[in-house]
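Subject: for your reference before the review

Hello V.,

The reviewers asked for a structural picture of the protein, and I figured it would be easier to keep everything in one thread rather than splitting it across files. Below is the amino acid sequence we used in the manuscript, unchanged from the supplementary table.
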Amino acid sequence: QVQLVESGGGLVQAGGSLRLTCVVSGNILSLNSMGWYRQPPGKQRELVAGINFDGSQNYADSVKGRFTISRDNAKNAMYLQMNSLKPEDTAVYYCNAVKRLPVTRTYWGQGTQVTVSS
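And here is what came back from the structure prediction:
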């Protein structure tokens, strides 16, 4: 069983930075892909950034050049470094993981609130 626990959210002024951490209970190497999603108030959840087992990454256009996703297999953790934050980045951020074998399963963390003030 895989459990994901996020931390690092908070209140920051526009232009500031935050780093989110997702700690994986279980073997992070068994996960085929991981990612960060966010859900702004009154809106649907959306993909922010993803990272695959081979290290390849993808980003939403709205965060390219400002956010960086990474993972540390030795620490069983994934990170999201968020720079140049904007008020529109305000959302609950969720850690996500997908394991494809023996059957495809998707895991979610409980979420962490990020609020960017103008």
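For the response letter, the relevant points are probably these. The mean pLDDT is 96. The radius of gyration is 14 Å.

Happy to draft the paragraph if you're swamped.

O.
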